[in-house]
Amino acid sequence: MDESRTAAPSDTRVTLAHIMSAHDTNLLGTVHGGNIMKLVDDAAGTVAARYSGGAAVTASMDEMLFLSPVRVGDVVTVHAQVNWAGRTSMEVGTRVETTRWDELSAPVHVASAYLVMVAVDVEGKPRAVRALDPETDEDQRRHREAQIRREHRLARRAAIKESRLAG
Ligand SMILES: CC(C)(COP(=O)(O)OP(=O)(O)OC[C@H]1O[C@@H](n2cnc3c(N)ncnc32)[C@H](O)[C@@H]1OP(=O)(O)O)[C@@H](O)C(=O)NCCC(=O)NCCS
Which BP terms in the Gene Ontology apply to this protein (predicted)? Predict the structure, then answer.
């Protein structure tokens, strides 16, 4: 990979779509949240692999709020892009929307999540990724907020480690 070449968040955008069928439901008849999480992970993994030019693994997925149920016949669309990139890790932001398969309805926002993806080499060791160049005001806002989330994730991880060592 040419690590000197930066990329803008818009270059990294991917959209995955899937129509929900009876195979995707839970016992209540609505779509199983795990199926939505898999689509989100697939979209984030694709974004991270394209951005880093190779394999990338999911290091973490932040809290995922399900805002509205997903039903059979919904076309689920996951939009994903890199919000922030460090040395080997990337934060990928995802937004899940649905529309009905047989209506010209406006998309409904059903969930969002942020994932930390780490680029890895053939031995599974972290490898360097290119720099991100947030161009628009919106990209810069996402970049700043991703940095805040990263600081919180790392602080939480360090605090738990410290507490285990103390306990
Ligand atoms: C993700 C993984 C490669 C990180 O390996 P590691 O030896 O801990 O690597 P490091 O400590 O050097 O961390 C690598 C990067 O990930 C970041 N990172 C790792 N865990 C993180 C977390 N929980 N939250 C935020 N960032 C994290 C680090 O800050 C670092 O980022 P940077 O290089 O951009 O500064 C390793 O933990 C792993 O392989 N996990 C399993 C992943 C997997 O299999 N996922 C699929 C599950 S089915």
Answer: acyl-CoA metabolic process
Q: Is residue 1 part of a domain?
A: no
- The alpha carbon of 68 and the centre of ligand 1 are apart by a number of angstroms equal to 31
- Inside any domain, residue 2: no
Closest CA to 6 of 49, 40, 63, 52: 52
What residues flank ligand 1, with Cβ below 6 Å?
57-60, 86-89, 116, 118, 120, 124, 126, 153-154, 157
Q: Calculate mean pLDDT across residues 127-147.
A: 97
Residue 40 inside a domain? The answer is: yes
**CA-150 nearest atom, ligand 1:** 25
Atom of ligand 1 nearest to the CA of 86: 34
In the block, residue with structure tokens 């959209």: 15
Query: Does the pLDDT value for residue 1 go beyond 60?
Result: no
Split into its structural domains, the chain has a count of 1
In angstroms, the Cα distances linking 3 to 46, 66, 118, 120, 131 are 19, 37, 15, 15, 7
In a domain, 110, yes or no: yes
Instruction: Give me the pLDDT at residue 45, please.
Output: 98
The pLDDT, as a whole number, for residue 167 is: 82
